[in-house]
Amino acid sequence: MFVAGHSSTTERILKNLHELLERSLGHPYTLKVIDVLSHPEQAELNQVSATPTLVKVWPHPIRRIVGELDHVEKILQMLAAKENFK
After folding, report:
1. DSSP state of 80
2. pLDDT tens digit sequence for 38-74
């Protein structure tokens, strides 16, 4: 997850994403949060040009969602979650 700085919006997005992952994934996961203001080289290496950006790197193919991450079904589809989140 690529974010820009530490703000209340960033905190809300991370909290909601964590809750979604805990409720919806049927397997362990790793969520790495990278602040592009502190680590711009990571954004460049991962071809991230906007924040917030969620990048799924495994299993392949690599997928990205850019924006507020309010579309739960889109996130679950990208992550291939086993259960639906309601």
Report:
1. T
2. 999 999 999 999 999 988 888 778 888 888 777 787 7
The answer to whether 75 and 69 have CB atoms below 8 angstroms apart is yes
CA 43 from chain centre, in angstroms, equals 13
**CA dist., res. 86 & res. 83, Å (int):** 10
- Taking the C-alpha atoms of residue 79 and residue 5, their distance in angstroms, rounded to an integer, is 25
Report which secondary-structure segment, H or E, holds 11.
helix 8-24
3-state secondary structure of 65: strand
Question: In the structure, what pLDDT confidence band is assigned to residue 81 with cuts at 50, 70 and 90?
Answer: very low
What lies within 8 Å, CB to CB, of 67 at 6+ separation is 50, 52
Instruction: Go through the domains of the chain in sequence order and give each one's CATH number.
Output: 2-79 (3.40.30.10)
Phi/psi for 18 (5° steps) reads -60, -45
